[in-house]
Design goal:
This protein is an alpha/beta fold. Helix content is 50%, strand content 16%. The chain has 3 domains: 128 residues, no CATH class; 126 residues, no CATH class; 42 residues. α4 crosses α9 and α10 crosses α12. The N terminus is likely disordered.
Length: 335
């Protein structure tokens, strides 16, 4: 949402279908200077624009920009996104829905929905922004690691069903997961990828991108590091299988110990739910029996954990807003 400081900015009505409003961002070689941009009504056949996937908005904070000569405040993640996309020496044309669609005109939103496929397929590039990487990241190493993972995943015709074959195929990467703990830098890379891949908002965007087709130039950015979208699809499969396999090994090692808290933490973090335990066990280690008391011990530990107020609060914060009422009602019935 755009909040203007000076005189109110008025969107001009779009004259007809086939015309869209585009955002022109002026160049700057000063990364700290405010964004200077303007809106222009142009045919969607305009050949030099990039379609920007709106970033996930998590903060209420705003940043100043200059829009059509007026001072304005723009939502933090969107301003951050445009700042990363801004070129040092040349103007750039973008289509970004939060700015290019009049929020007070419902007909424009309907028109956009009808023209979305055309806007995406005619764009020079489709770009998505996944946020600024943590300062501790070595971006060159991150990009190298992701490229290696992608290359291995692409060369795998199907998901390995046998854990020995899986280990052989991904030996160099599985070393990053080696016990007792991977390095903090490497762990942050995988955690960030998982966060992005598992986030429900981004998952919906994968679905959207699949429905519109794999058009040319779909790239996702972490900072200014570009990763092709198909790499993330492959990474999703790899990370899921790698974490599942490691979780099973870790649980087996902990099964004879009394460290149930550690076992439950690993199971929650790396396997999801216990209901999937038997399914994954059959898939990844059919000849390895589950210790008879391990599943029940973990189930009892989870039950005690889930009865605490801290766990209830944590679940409520993580769930989408539309599910909170159902969760709250279920908790009341259980209590």
């Amino acid at each position: 949402m755009v909040v203007l400081r000076a005189k109110e900015f008025v969107y001009q009505n779009l004259p007809l279908r086939g015309i869209a409003r585009f955002l022109l961002v002026n160049p700057s070689n000063d990364p700290l200077s405010p964004l200077h941009c303007s809106l222009h009504d142009l045919p969607i056949t305009h050949p030099t624009y990039d379609f920007l996937i709106p970033p996930v908005q998590t903060r209420k904070k705003t940043r100043p920009i200059v829009l059509n000569g007026n001072e304005a405040k723009l939502q933090f993640e969107i301003e951050h996104y445009l700042r990363y996309m801004r070129h040092e020496t040349k103007e750039q044309m973008f289509f970004l829905r939060p700015l290019c669609i009049n929020p007070h005109q419902p007909d424009e939103a309907k028109s956009y929905d009808l023209q979305q496929n055309d806007l995406v397929t005619r764009a020079n590039h489709v770009r998505g922004f996944m946020g600024k990487p943590p300062k501790r990241w070595d971006l060159e190493q991150v990009a190298k690691t992701l490229r290696e993972m992608h290359a291995l995943a692409v060369n795998t015709a199907a998901r390995p069903q046998d854990k020995d074959a899986f280990r052989k195929q991904y030996a160099s990467i599985l070393r990053l997961f080696s016990l007792p703990e991977p390095s903090k830098e490497v762990k942050s890379v995988f955690e960030r990828c998982l966060e992005l891949l598992c986030n429900s908002i981004w998952r919906n965007r994968w679905t959207t991108l699949q429905t519109i087709g794999m058009v040319k130039g779909i790239d996702l950015y972490i900072g200014r590091t570009s990763i092709p979208i198909d790499a993330f699809y492959k990474l999703a499969h790899f990370i899921h299988d790698a974490r599942t396999l490691q979780a099973w090994d870790v649980l087996s090692q902990l099964s004879t110990s009394n460290n149930l808290a550690a076992a439950s933490r690993i199971a929650r973090n790396r396997m999801g739910t216990l209901r999937q335990l038997k399914q994954w066990k059959t898939k990844l280690s059919p000849n390895q029996p589950l210790p008879p008391d391990l599943e029940q011990k973990l189930r009892d530990h989870f039950a005690r954990e889930e009865n605490t107020s801290a766990w209830k609060t944590k679940v409520m914060e993580r769930q989408p807003h539309r599910l909170r009422a159902k969760i709250k009602q279920a908790m009341k019935q259980r209590d």
